[in-house]
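chain below, 318 aa
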Amino acid sequence: MDHKRGCYNVQSANQQKSHQPVVNVLVKWKIQWLTLNRLLSFCAVVSLYSRFQIGDNMLNWVLILGCSTGHGGATAKRLAKDGYGIIGFHFDRSEVRREAEALRDEIAELNGGRVHFWNTNAAAIETMDKYVPKINTITGGKPVKLLLHSIAFGTTMNLLGEKHVTRKQMDMTIHVMGTSLLYWTQKLHDAKLLGRGSRVMGFTSEGNYVAMEGYGPVSVAKVAMEAILRQIGWELGRFGITANAIQAGVTPTRALTKISDRWEDWVERTKYRNPMGRTTTPEDVANVVSLLLRPEADFINCSTIYCDGGEHRSGKIY
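prediction:
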C-alpha cells in the first residue's frame, strides 16, 4: 500500500509538473486580459469625459470679430473642433471673402453646421445694434462663452513721416482696433449676453510697448485695447466675467505684410531672436484661447497672456 501510494504520489507530482507550463500560460493570459480590460475601461472613461466636455461646449456659442483669416480664423476653426458654435464677423472682398466662405463651410462640417458668418463692418455701432438681437436669437438668450476681438484693420505708417498721420486715420485705427471692443462689450452685457463664465479677449502685440517702423497708430490702438480689457475685467469680475489680452509673437499673416515692406526681414530676425527658433503661428494663439475657455482658467483676469515662445523676453541682438 505504501509502495503503491508512493508510486501514485510520484506520478501525481510528475503530472503537475508537466501541466505547469500550461498553467503559467493561462495565468499570464488572465493577467493580460485583466490589464487590457482595465485599460479599455479607463479609455472609455476618458472618452466619456471628452464627450461630456464637447457636449457641454455644444451648448455654448463664441463671437469672433475678425474671423476670416489669421488668428481669428484659426481660433474659429479650433473652437469649432472643441464643439462651440461660431458666430463671426469679417469685412472682406473678392479672394479673402472666398477664403472666409470656405472657412465657414469647413467649420460647419466640424461642429454640425452651428456657424454664422456676416460680411460687414463689425466696428460700426449700427452693426452692433443690428446684430446683437440676432445673436440673442441664435443663442436662445444664453450668454456667449467668448467675445474675441481679432480685427486687424488700421493705418500703418509713422506718426511724423514725410506725410503725417491725420486725426481721421488715428481716430479710425483706435476705434476699429481698440475701442470697438468696449462698445461690443457694453451692448452684449446690456442684452444679458455676457454672464458667469463668459470671457472677453483681444489680441495685442509687442508693438504695445516697443516703437517700430510703420506701427504708430496701431500701437496706440493696442494700448487702448489692453487698458479697456483690464477695466472690463475689473468691473465685470464680480459677475464671473473675465477679460484678458493675448500677446502673440511675430506671425507671418496677411496683416503683417501690411505693416512694412520689410516684413520678410522681420520674420527671419524673429526666428533668430526667438528662444524656440521659429515665429508664432495662428494655431499657437488659437490653442491659448481654447485653454483660457476651460473652467480651470476662471480665475485668470485683467492680464496679458504671452504666446510667443519667449520672444518678448529674448535679449538677442540682431
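The chain has two domains: 1-57, 60-313. The first helix runs from residue 2 to 57.
thats it, cya
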